[in-house]
Amino acid sequence: MEKKVRVRFAPSPTGGLHLGGVRTALFNYLFARQHKGTFILRVEDTDQTRFVPGAEEYIASCLAWCGLTPDESPDLGGPFAPYRQSERKASYRQYAEQLVSSGHAYYAFDTPEELDAKRKAAPNFLYGQATRMEMRNSLTLDAAAVQALLDENTPHVVRIKIPENETVSFHDLIRGHVSFDTNLIDDKVLLKADGMPTYHLAVVADDRAMEISHVFRGEEWLPSAPIHILLWRYLGWEDEMPAWVHLPLILKPDGNGKLSKRDGDRLGFPVYAQNWTDPKTGDLTKGFRELGFMPEAFVNLLAMLGWNDGTDQEIFSLDELVEKFSLERISKAGAKFDYEKAKWYNHEWIKRTPAITLAPAVKAALASAGLEITDDENLHTVIELVKDRCNIISDFVTQSGYFFVAPKEYDVASVKPKWNEQKTAFFEAYADSPMEGTAQELEAEFKALAAAHQLKPGELMLPFRVMLVGGKFGPGVFDIAILLGKTEVKNRIKAAVAAFI
After folding, report:
1. Lowest CB count within 10 Å: 286, 360, 414, 491, which one?
2. For 63-105, what is each residue's pLDDT tens digit?
3. What pTM was estimated for this model as a whole?
4. Helix axes 295-303, 19-34, angle to 10 degrees
5. Phi, psi values for residue 173, rounded to 5°
6. Is residue 261 annotated as a catalytic residue, yes or no?
């Protein structure tokens, strides 16, 4: 009988959600939806020293914005609750004790000071096969001494006992056959002195408890895979072990290493899904959402970082991604992040999105620039006219703000060198012309008047645009004039001519 697909996105609530984390959630989601399976959000908050208040709510908000709704989560609950590891604390010690009893783990009583001294004496010190018999643990102490220390509640951790001279192998659904030499792996801590599990023990125990069928996670977790496989084996659960899917890294734009928040800060682009404010420092890190990215575009661009459907198609809705997604098309190699390409995706989604859908976000962007819009119908018309020129939502402020308020400044430098009295006379005459009809009729009237003034229309178009808009941008100038209305156009011509003279 085929195993029911159950996958989980299991972030730690330690800060902003990196776009690599959202891509992991996305691939989990796509695989679950494609196979009519279950997508779970599990919060891995076992490291209480790194826990950040508000981070869990932030993660849920990011997923909701992207449309990646879980089937089971801390908020929604589910048949395998609780979905916060800190609330499952009582379940982990039994597994640690089971591993000690079977000889696959041991108690380690070394103090932080003793460990620091070891690390200073041996800079590349690893607690493992070569050193474990030099340390203070249940392998070097007799049974009575160990029991006495436990009875006295002496602080201790539980470490896995990695075997010597073994090869741990597994099949990764992206990478194929993967092998690790156990002689290169140290004895990782499984249970900390505060009774909380480390990631290694908790992830295996919870994946088994929640009947996870496939583990999607970043390539950076590959070195942990042999530890987890040994734990599945040592706990007697090897037959229940999930399939492994280690996703390629998202790389810096130059391809040299994994993309980090520092890279985004240095190069001037976001790496978080949404704005994140550090509760300790108050520092704000900008996110894709607040910088004007549409969720459809953000999801689309993430899907294409390391995956394609084998065709030239680049624009996919979430439903299309569910339909087309396949593990076979995920690349083994890392994917370079290109912010210009990210903006291109957003531009394409803005073009494809109806004005009525874009309106709330555009309205908010205009409001933040001090432009309160009350005529929604007019706003929709403006959006349709300028959306092809916008890469991000905030571009609508520049590309459409002049429809709602006259320019306060003009690009005089582009007009003044070729300005003369003849052009002044033309625009004064044009300001008194009828200006009736469609955009085409306005253009015809404009050209006829230019001919009467012995001027070429091409010499007048740029000044006219600058008069209405303030600069050398925007859609067709007569389309702008129609929307502004005759009175407003005349007022803007008169104000600008005074600035050009």
Report:
1. 360
2. 999 999 999 999 999 999 999 999 999 899 999 999 999 999 9
3. 0.92
4. 80
5. -70, -10
6. yes
Q: Is 195 exposed, middle or buried (0-12, 13-18, 19+ CB in 10 A)?
A: exposed
- Closest among 207, 231, 208, 194 to 89, alpha carbons compared: 194
Tracing tokens 């600035």 back to the chain, one arrives at 499
Query: Is 305's pLDDT higher than 70?
Result: yes
Question: Whole-angstrom Cα distance, residue 79 to residue 419?
Answer: 76
User: How many other CB atoms are there within 10 angstroms of residue 126's CB atom?
Assistant: 15
Alpha carbon 172 to its chain centroid, in Å, reads 25
Per-residue pLDDT, 501: 75
What is the chain's Cα-based Rg? 31
CA distances from 320 to 79, 245, 310, 314, 385 (A): 30, 22, 14, 11, 28
List 118, 261, 341, 494, catalytic entry: 261
State mean pLDDT over 96-123: 96
Closest residue by Cα to residue 289 from 342, 351, 338: 342
pLDDT tens per residue, range 375-402: 999 999 999 999 999 999 999 999 999 9
* Best CA proximity match to 274, nearest among 8, 68, 59: 59
How is residue 183 written in tokens? Answer: 């002689």
What torsion, rounded to 10 degrees, do the Cα atoms 445, 446, 449, 453 define?
-170
Strands annotated E in 271-411: 276-277, 284-285, 335-336
Percent of the chain past pLDDT 90, that is, above it, reads 96
CA 385 to chain centre: 30
How many of the other CB atoms lie within 10 Å of CB of 369?
Answer: 13
CA distance 438 to 277: 50
- Measured CA distances, 195 to 51, 107, 198, 247, 408 (Å): 16, 12, 9, 31, 65
